[in-house]
Amino acid sequence: MTTWPQVAIAGGSLGGLTAALLLRDLGCDVDVYERSEAVLTAPGAGIAVLAQTSRYLEERLGMPVDSFCSSTNNITFFHADGSIEKSIPHRYHFAAWNTIYRLLHRAFGDDRYRMGVEVASFENTPGAVTVNFSDGSSRDVDLLVCADGIRSMARAASLPGVKPEYAGYVAWRGTVPESQLSGATYAALHDSISYQVIDHGHILIYPIPDETGDIRPGHRLMNIVWYYNADEQTQLPRLLTDRTGFRQGVSVPPGFLDLDVQQEVKDFASSVLAPQLAEVVTSIDDIFLQAVFDIEVPQMAFGRACIMGDAGFAARPHAAAGTAKAAQDAWALAEELERANGDVPAALNVWQSRQLEMGRNLVARTKATGEASQVHGTFGPDWPTLIFGLYAPGH
Ligand SMILES: Cc1cc2nc3c(=O)[nH]c(=O)nc-3n(C[C@H](O)[C@H](O)[C@H](O)COP(=O)(O)OP(=O)(O)OC[C@H]3O[C@@H](n4cnc5c(N)ncnc54)[C@H](O)[C@@H]3O)c2cc1C
Fold first, then answer.
1. pTM
2. 225 CB less than 6 Å from ligand 1?
């Protein structure tokens, strides 16, 4: 009979939770350690949902994707005067980050989801991996899965030469209730992911469920992602310094963006965006910011520990595949552990070679899209990798 491993997971966001659920389903004894003391909320507001992101909810919990995601049927590019440059029929699903988190967290339960516990370090010992916590305690497990995000402690300790590389631009984010938009703007945007290409950048806008999960057209939130070049030395420090004067690391969360910066974004929107898109941006109460980074790693398995999701590769958002990649890392890990009958080092070895290839491809594709938009001015409706996807456009 197979003895399934005891597993510790560092990081209880979408990647960590998906891994926790799948490994527990396999028969493993799983604890999640999440550094945050409060329930996690909306680090990215809206996300485009690829099949891998929703796979656990659909396959294991029997929840049809249309029951928790909003959807649109077109990709529409606007000119600055508000006329349509091109509209392409294509169906996408969208969710609020919170919606997916809430559903996965509820499925895992609170008992073994340990909040306010930070994993500080780990070391491999014969036959186990010792997990050390910030409060000075430690425990031995068979497998440590580090899903601890873009500033991963595990990556920094295991691969000190790998540093997140700033891509040269940030994303302005925010939402506004559809019900607050004018009738004309709602009519133009409600069934599309709406794009506008501007000089050295582009914006996309799509509807996501509201805070209660309401996905009915007219009841949703319009969500923006607007890529804006910001020089690392001369501009980025000001943008990352929040309204309390604190210098944030990679993002400025809702409620904290400097108010002058917020007004500048709205003024810029009024001067360059199509009237319908400008109306959305200028109606947002609380714009926030995420800086964009590339991270490529040469290794994801370290004895009985591994890094997954953004702790491994972090790709620019242009394939909308960040949460799908984290989920796919988790699915592949469960598959390989099952195939290896619970032999952790053997499973991690095969898992790593599969996931390294996926990560490298995604980073290369999203870099090319980012450079086309922010540097070369070649991004637009005919861009060959316009359609979102994890392995390739549309896949
Ligand atoms: C502008 C922008 C737009 C995006 N749009 C999309 C999109 O449309 N679709 C999509 O799929 N993805 C999108 N993404 C990417 C997506 O947000 C990430 O890829 C995804 O959140 C990664 O999930 P994760 O679980 O790996 O890490 P994270 O969500 O970063 O979670 C890491 C968790 O680990 C915890 N943690 C950190 N250190 C420790 C520690 N030492 N001990 C314990 N806990 C710890 C943190 O508190 C956090 O909860 C976007 C990203 C950006 C920047």
1. 0.96
2. yes
